[in-house]
Amino acid sequence: MASEKELSDFLKSIELKAFKRAAYATRDDEAALDIVQDSMMRLAQKYGDHPAQEFPMLFNRILHNATMDWFRRQKTQNNWLSFFSAFQSQDPEDGHDSSDPLEFIDVNHEFSFLHNAEKLLERKETLKIIENEIEKLPTRQREAFLMRYWDGLDIAETAKIMGCSEGSVKTHCSRAASALAYALKKQGLNRE
């Protein structure tokens, strides 16, 4: 059984990565923060007495489910808003937030070892293009890709979290990688 310190250390270690993943998915920093906080609370309340080595798998599953719940709530809210808006006058402003979901990544800090301003600018532009292309991926492909290559989960862990077969994870990742490679090549970012 895990100690309180082990649980606390685990939560501290995954805090930023979980936030980035949720922000990628929701494109809403406040929603991402709520999702991560709720997921951490659920892990502590329901599984805090489990062995520490089970925390990564449990937390990733909880985070995945919390994110999917958020999307379901958004869909329901949007359906109701659409229904009621038919009875109201149309407002030309849609209020849609077009902010970049990955604005919180501090590229200067992450690449502080680079002293060459030209290389730093090039890397920032490349990162921005990659982020935009990842956002364009279909949800399941983006999810599998991020879990495998961002979170570093293996195929079996990713399949378990996504609730699909390992073959599906491989297919989603392969299609995502191909789509990203094609999009980046079109933008002149191939490194052949």
Features:
mainly alpha
Structure described in brief:
With 192 residues, the chain is mostly helical. The protein is 72% helix and 0% strand.
3D architecture notes:
Helices cover 72% and strands 0% of the residues. With 192 residues, the chain is mainly α. It contains eight helices and no strands.
Sheet with the most strands? none
What's the assembly state of these chains?
A: single chain
Unreliable stretches covering 5 or more consecutive residues: 80-115
Rg calculated over all Cα atoms = 19 Å
Shape: globular
Q: List the helices and strands in order.
A: HHHHHHHH
Instruction: Please report the distance between the alpha carbons of the first and last residues.
Output: 50 Å
- Counted beta strands: 0
Helix content: over 70%
Q: Strand share of the residues?
A: under 5%
Structural class: mainly alpha
- If helices are DSSP runs of H or I spanning 4 or more residues, what is the number of helices? 8
Mean pLDDT: 77
Layout of strands and helices, then pairs:
Elements (H helix, E strand, L loop, with lengths): L3 H23 L2 H19 L7 H31 L21 H4 L6 H20 L2 H12 L4 H8 L3 H21 L6
Helix pairs in contact: 1-2, 1-3, 2-3, 3-7, 5-8, 6-7, 6-8, 7-8
